[in-house]
């Protein structure tokens, strides 16, 4: 949604865009969108919950809880491990842990 470009302080727009990215299984982009919204409204529960859903989805992929073949889980797991060891993601996870 272009609403965050047209009205950057419209927090609901970040929530909607993040939800769309989440349902497209683009969890990293969704987390970034939710975080961008939190810059405008740091206490927004909907944005914080969106970040937690993304982290939970990434964790499920890492642990193979999607009911997929072993090969696809292994490939997804390798991608998640590399993402989760990235300093920016680790920092986000720590921030989220402190939020809840």
Task: Note down, in words, how this protein is organized.
- By secondary structure, the protein is mainly α.
- Helices cover about 75% and strands about 0% of the residues.
- It has 6 helices and no strands.
- Helix 2 runs antiparallel to helix 3, helix 3 (about 25-40) runs antiparallel to helix 4 and helix 4 (about 45-60) crosses helix 5 (about 70-85).
- The longest helix is centred in the middle third of the chain and has 18 residues, at about 45-60.
- It starts with a helix and ends with a helix.
Tell me the major beta sheet: none
Q: Uncertain runs with pLDDT below 50, 5 residues or more?
A: 68-84
Percent of residues in helices comes to over 70%
Secondary-structure content class: mainly alpha
Gyration radius, rounded: 14 Å
Mean pLDDT: 78
Strand content: under 5%
What global shape is seen? globular
Oligomeric state of the chains in view: single chain
Number of helices: 6
Q: How would you spell out the order of helices and strands?
A: HHHHHH
Count all strands and give the number: 0
Distance between the termini: 28 Å
